[in-house]
Design goal:
Blueprint lengths: L16 H15 L21 E9 L5 E2 L2 E2 H14 L4 E12 L4 H18 L2 E10 L7 E11 L15 E4 L5 H10 L16 H10 L5 E4 L4 H13 L2 E5 L7 H10 L12 E5 L4 H9 L8 E7 L6 E4 L5 E3 L13
Parallel strand pairs: 4-5, 9-12
Antiparallel strand pairs: 1-6, 2-3, 4-6, 7-10, 7-11, 8-10, 9-11, 12-13
Helix pairs in contact: 1-3, 2-3, 2-5, 5-8
Length: 340
């Protein structure tokens, strides 16, 4: 083993032997990309189908703490990028991973993050095929930042887009809301809150493929990350030119999340999720979509929460527990510090 340092130094970003040792022992020995060139050369049978299209996405991840109940920054990076592809109807295939490492970061922490990413990639059916590392001085980064990009293939004839949602379409979520945001908030320890909550962080590619196979008429889907379910619904309503009505009694929320939000004056509809999506499908396919989602562990709690309506266009309304209704607006500003 050539890498004997316990912490990353600026020499590990200098382009010499120290950098090579870090890359080979921490990253490429785990990810095993095809070759060691400056680019990945990709081929897949799915690309040969007439009408197949590439889907491409990129995202950067910063989270404190870097490791938290239910996940870590590496798991979020893989799952978040896979999910961005999946909700567009693509089959996720390849990822890149770039790391900005603060001087002093523990090598053991890097190894744990990389191992976590490798496990999630295998589970999601994707390959991490290329990447980059940069080392910055102390104080120039918050320990570790990760940027991932993803490529997937959209099969011929598949077209998911928010603008395709129509009045009458059923809104379905695959599971509980707000677990990630609440778990990160508790893990920081700033508010002396104790909780057994864990992040919902999960890759949803297999779930989306199962749902699309059972309900090929699915119109659109979004993962409910920053801004939570409320922001995802508002974006869809605006792009489709429809209203959306949801039922508060149908929303899948843990009592711990409700309680934490009540104590802190937060709205769980705006809490970030890392393993929750919302999709819209025609009413005659809703039961098939629900059954397919519930057959998978990441969709065991799937439930219909509402539907699209003719208007007012762009407005999301929630029917409350007390029989009234309230507007669920787009999040303005930040409800919490950045948590993904």
């Amino acid at each position: 083993m050539a890498l004997r340092d316990e912490r990353v130094t600026l020499a590990h970003g200098g382009g010499g032997k120290a950098m090579r040792d870090l890359i080979e022992e921490v990253f490429t020995s785990v990810f095993v990309p095809p070759g060691m060139e400056d680019q990945a050369r990709l081929m897949h049978d799915a690309l040969q189908a007439p009408g197949a299209r590439l889907a491409f996405t990129t995202d950067s991840f910063v989270v404190t703490p870097i490791e938290f109940p239910g996940g870590d920054i590496g798991k979020i990076a893989v799952c978040g990028t896979v999910n961005d592809l999946a909700v567009g109807g693509a089959v996720p295939l390849w990822l890149s991973a770039a790391f900005i490492i603060e001087e002093g970061c523990e090598v053991a922490l890097l190894r744990r993050i990389v191992a976590s990413m490798a496990r999630e990639a295998v589970a999601a059916g994707v390959h991490i095929v290329t990447g980059d590392t940069k080392v910055v001085g102390r104080g120039a980064a918050d320990g570790l930042f990760v940027t991932t990009s993803g490529i997937g293939v959209i099969p011929p004839g598949r077209e998911l887009a928010a603008a395709r949602v129509r009045a009458g379409d059923v809104a379905i979520v695959n599971g509980v809301l707000g677990d990630h945001g609440a778990a990160i908030l508790a893990a920081r320890g700033d508010l002396a809150l104790s909780s057994d909550l864990v992040s919902d962080c999960a890759a949803l590619g297999h779930l989306m493929q199962a749902a699309l196979a059972a309900a090929p008429g699915i119109r659109a889907a979004r993962d409910c990350t920053r801004g939570g379910l409320a922001s995802a619904l508002n974006e869809i309503a605006a792009e489709a030119g429809v209203g959306i009505e949801i039922d508060e009694t149908a929303l899948p929320l843990r009592d711990e999340v409700r309680g934490m939000c009540e104590i802190l004056g937060l709205d769980p509809l705006y809490l970030a999720n890392e393993g929750t999506l919302v999709l819209f499908c025609p009413p005659d396919e809703a039961e098939a979509a629900l059954a397919a989602m519930r057959a998978r562990p990441e969709g065991a709690g799937a439930v219909a929460i509402g539907r699209a309506v003719a208007g007012p266009a762009g407005r999301v309304v929630m029917r409350t527990l007390f029989g009234g209704s309230r507007i669920v607006d787009m999040l303005v500003g930040e409800q919490l510090p950045r948590i993904c």
